[in-house]
Amino acid sequence: MKPVTISAHRVGYEICSYFRAPDSVFFTFLFPIVMLALFSVAFSSAPDIGPGPGASVDYATYYLPGLVATGILLSGTQSLGVDIAGERSDGTLKRLGGTPLPVLSYFAGKIGMVLVTSVLQTGILLAVARLVFGVDLPTDSGRWWTFAWIVLLGIAVSSVLGIAISALPREGRRATATIVPVVLVLQFISGVYLPFTQLPDWLQDVASAFPLRWMASGMRSVFLPSQFGSAEPGGAWHLGTGAIILTAWLVVGVAVCLLTFRWNRKDA
């Protein structure tokens, strides 16, 4: 079969495998939706949050951008990292290495799965936010364009980082303990759950070196009123800087994948 046909079959296989794993579905696919519901209900009686009078939103609207970005990171980096590490540990990758399956088709299957699940997850998250919690979604086409390129670039970055980080755990059973804490810490320091500028300056600098901070900031520029930009570091969204940093992570991630990915660990 042609590589494109093989890749398409791998995408279908990976999607079916993903939704057959209850832990993956809950901790990656449903997690942002559950968190949005929890925050919205918990702060339903709290005053709106915002940088000043006339520029405030309810908590469902406030948390939505960060959770959209988090969902992409979970579906890509966390899900792929744990999944591939498990496949390497249980011998699945070694068996695949003995077949005609091209490495690029294997990658395409994984990335295609992340693309489909991330788009589906984001769509459900936005639908729940709008229909259940009354969040006003953007009506400006320019904001939706920003949303589109952040989603696509975020999916690409998260996917290659997931493939790259899968090489860290020496055993599949340790993958969750190795990868999940990293992703969880990034959520707390990247402005997903806490206002970014409330963090110490040094911690803001650390977070700014990682992609989730820029994905979350970019999503805030889409879903929050423009006045919220004054609450960002430097008083602006800095979308150009975010695009450059995300692209840099994509290039580095691809290079690391090509250098480190093996069907079987050398020390196995």
Automatic annotation (TrEMBL):
GO cellular component term, pick one: ATP-binding cassette (ABC) transporter complex
Family: Belongs to the ABC-2 integral membrane protein family.
Cross-referenced PROSITE patterns: ABC_TM2 (PS51012)
Record's keyword annotation contains Cell membrane: yes
Membrane topology: Multi-pass membrane protein
Domain of life: Bacteria
Every ABC transmembrane type-2 domain range: 23-264
Protein localization: Cell membrane; Membrane
Record's keyword terms, sorted: Antibiotic resistance, Cell membrane, Membrane, Transmembrane, Transmembrane helix, Transport
Principal cellular location given in the protein's record: membrane
Gene source species: Curtobacterium luteum
Positions of transmembrane segments: 25-43, 63-86, 107-132, 144-168, 175-196, 236-261
MF GO annotations: ABC-type transporter activity
Protein name per its UniProtKB record: Transport permease protein
GO biological process, one term: response to antibiotic
InterPro entries: ABC2_TM, ABC2_TM_bact-type, ABC_2_transport, Nod_factor_ABC_transporter
